């Protein structure tokens, strides 16, 4: 990590647009402004009340134990079952016939409708099957599945029997999968023969076979038949339809301690060994459930919710599985990509299921903007009432595009900042309360103590920039890095005394609202000024010809670092000779001459991680004419060849 001083993080972009909550939404909102007051008067009391939204078999004796920081314990002595909270209690309350999942496969016409009662039965059977395979509470189970209902069933079955799941994204390779299985010493792997990707079956089982050969802890592999393609078979393999299909439908959920490990999820980081982020039971479910209820204003009887993330990421864990299901939501789950079989697939799905709440990522929004406004315009999107964003800072112009083209110019947008490590949303507008600002996540949610501090850990005044930190423990915080307490302390708790360091740069505007400015490793130092990549990218995206951009600081003999911008144009735009000059001048006009890019490269694609985040590190390698660093987390490695070729030409 670069040790760039942040106190002078320049505050360049100004944004004056404001959007008040629609009055009808504000009038019936699940959470009102009072929640902020309650939480600031009594933070622990506030979280106790949020925890009361769940069913506890045994009440807790103490809300928080913070006597051994940074190792927190929440709801000490309390016991609950996560699967019971997500399923049984809704069925017992008479809502068994409510649809839990409208599943839409990638091949058009491949669909399933799963009610809460049906999902419960499947989870009970899978829980029995896992028990029959020798899995007991505390064991780790790796899950490597496509986006099919069995992925949620597998996670909930683990939770039901107290096994700790470790979901690995279905696109990862043997190295990544075997590394994660070994780090977690998983006893069982749950996988499928394959999934569908861009219209074709894509095998998963061969990667599992190779990984299991490198992972001595694995005793059994449970295989879902999804594509029906031939697979090699070993003596550890068991078909899901045999083991789960033949299992008993009776299973009584046993309660587990609030601090029982629920899951491990690996974050890829940049180059270092992946970190196994450990989440536990009671605090995690409390915050995942409460934030989903508050930020999406979920009305389980009438809303249809859709989160487009993959279950292999934390967003899929907290906002496809645990948050929505604990709240009794009806949701869409989609297996495929946004452009299969055509670029209107997302909007076709919104129209078909009358989706009311949509949660997606800036990378997707910018791609849709690039494809053109005419595509969503062909569909009826009038059912939508709240739009969410997560994963990266959303550029103000992408935010406006989202609101205008997807939200009919009237839906609130909730820009939710959080991390794998935080487990659940931390900073976000509340849709019935907040007057929103395009590009800002704005305010810590009730019960969350987020702050922006300078190098010494002092809060910056309004108008200042620095590091995002969390000053108080929160229920869904990571408890440690699996097997490495010291790395947990070093990574998150050593930069500042008694504060969690998130690794993101941020600024506070004149109203005190928070703007996320990207990872601090990406901050540029130009002629002695710290400039955030996010602000320069947002200035570029505010030009009508630009769909997306990525900005890096490349070593410069005169200025220390020079700004190099990689730009993707909107679909219909033909570049002319003057365009790059026009864009450089546009940035200078928006942000000031200090932020004017030294060089602009027009590129067809940008390097992204598999969860859609721009990998600026690789672009920095290109801009400084170095050979590329680790590309294993890259979604599409051909992208880098295209960009490097263009860079050489533009030298
Ligand atoms: C949920 C998730 C975490 C990092 C985080 C930050 C970036 C996520 C954001 C955002 C600005 C938002 N990030 N949401 N930046 N605004 N609304 O993405 O978790 O994959 O662990 O990534 O993503 O940089 O530190 P994870």
UniProtKB/TrEMBL annotation:
Record note on modification: Acetylated. Deacetylation by the SIR2-homolog deacetylase activates the enzyme.
Protein's UniProt keywords contain Nucleotide-binding: yes
Domain spans labelled AMP-binding enzyme C-terminal: 535-613
Keywords, in A-Z order: Acetylation, ATP-binding, Ligase, Magnesium, Metal-binding, Nucleotide-binding
Entry-linked Pfam families: ACAS_N, AMP-binding, AMP-binding_C
Listed InterPro entries: Ac_CoA_lig, ACAS_N, AMP-bd_C, AMP-bd_C_sf, AMP-dep_synth/lig_dom, ANL_N_sf
Catalytic reaction(s) noted: acetate + ATP + CoA = acetyl-CoA + AMP + diphosphate
Binding, ATP: 391-393, 415-420, 504, 519
Gene3D superfamilies reported for this sequence: 3.30.300.30, N-terminal domain of ligase-like (3.40.50.12780)
Any one Gene Ontology BP term: acetyl-CoA biosynthetic process from acetate
Keyword Nucleotide-binding among UniProt keywords: yes
Residue intervals of the Acetyl-coenzyme A synthetase N-terminal domain: 33-86
CDD domains for the chain: ACS (cd05966)
GO molecular function, one term: acetate-CoA ligase activity
Catalytic class of the enzyme: ligase
Residues given in the record as Mg(2+) binding sites: 541, 543, 546
Reported cofactor(s): Mg(2+)
UniProt-annotated binding residues for CoA: 197-200, 315, 527
Domain AMP-dependent synthetase/ligase: 93-474
Residues where N6-acetyllysine is found: 613
Enzyme Commission number, as recorded: 6.2.1.1
Purpose: Catalyzes the conversion of acetate into acetyl-CoA (AcCoA), an essential intermediate at the junction of anabolic and catabolic pathways. AcsA undergoes a two-step reaction. In the first half reaction, AcsA combines acetate with ATP to form acetyl-adenylate (AcAMP) intermediate. In the second half reaction, it can then transfer the acetyl group from AcAMP to the sulfhydryl group of CoA, forming the product AcCoA.
Alphabetized HAMAP family for the sequence: Ac_CoA_synth
Family (UniProt): Belongs to the ATP-dependent AMP-binding enzyme family.
PANTHER family per record: ACETYL-COENZYME A SYNTHETASE (PTHR24095), ACETYL-COENZYME A SYNTHETASE 1 (PTHR24095:SF14)
Protein name as it appears in the record: Acetyl-coenzyme A synthetase
Organism whose genome encodes this protein: Phytomonospora endophytica
Gene that this sequence comes from: acsA
